[in-house]
Design a protein that fits this description.
201 residues, Endonuclease, Chain A, disordered C terminus
Length: 201
């Protein structure tokens, strides 16, 4: 299924957040790879609002960023369901791309640190200096082994063909081999310059 963002978001961004709630709720194992922004599941209200406002501006759609961000954060409560598992993988550069002001980014990176403690969540980082065994890809979300959502600049693509889903999961596994975990992943987050306030040195 190929759905253009300009159609999905014509009346605003909130609907797209709400419409995916049933999918998130029935998924038992979610794998997420992001190379450009903090994964939606891990976004704070401030970060999500700043990002979604930029998306609305670029798409020329109704700017309902505050309501859409609230819906996104509400959808993310699935992280606290102990029956689920979440494996999230980001490129280190994601931690250095600021959306919102310095306070917003400090709050966002602080929240990532807190989420790491959840028993349902694995959050890993691919360092800039990692030897590449797989090139950087567009962001995607895998829902169990049944469906993958690929997000491009122009469209939201739903993949259900078993061979294509398997290919995405294979890519996720390959990307994971380059990632760091635990204390080393935390070091990448703490090194992000956007944790400093604008008035700092």
């Amino acid at each position: 299924m190929y759905r253009e963002w300009r159609h999905l978001q014509r009346a605003g961004l909130k609907h797209n957040q709400v419409s995916t709630v049933p999918l998130y709720q029935r998924t038992r194992h979610m794998r997420v790879y992001c190379s450009n922004v903090i994964p939606g599941l891990l976004q704070t209200q401030g970060y999500a609002e700043a990002l979604l406002a930029r998306i609305a501006e670029f798409e020329g759609s109704v700017n309902d960023a505050p309501a859409a961000a609230t819906a996104r954060v509400e959808r993310s409560k699935v992280l606290y369901d102990g029956s689920k598992r979440f494996a999230l993988l980001v490129e280190e550069d994601v931690l250095h791309f600021p959306f919102g002001d310095a306070e917003t980014m400090a709050g966002q990176l602080g929240y990532l640190m807190a989420v790491m403690a959840l028993p349902t969540v694995s959050l890993d980082v691919i360092p800039r200096t990692a030897t590449r065994h797989m090139w950087t890809l567009e962001g995607f979300l895998a829902f169990d082994d049944e469906q993958v959502q690929v997000e491009t600049l122009s469209a939201d693509i739903t993949v259900k063909n078993p061979s294509e889903v398997a290919l995405c999961l294979r890519a996720f596994s390959r990307l994971s081999t380059m990632a760091v975990h635990g204390a080393r992943a935390t070091a990448c987050r703490m090194a992000a310059p956007c944790t400093r306030r604008a008035s700092g040195p």
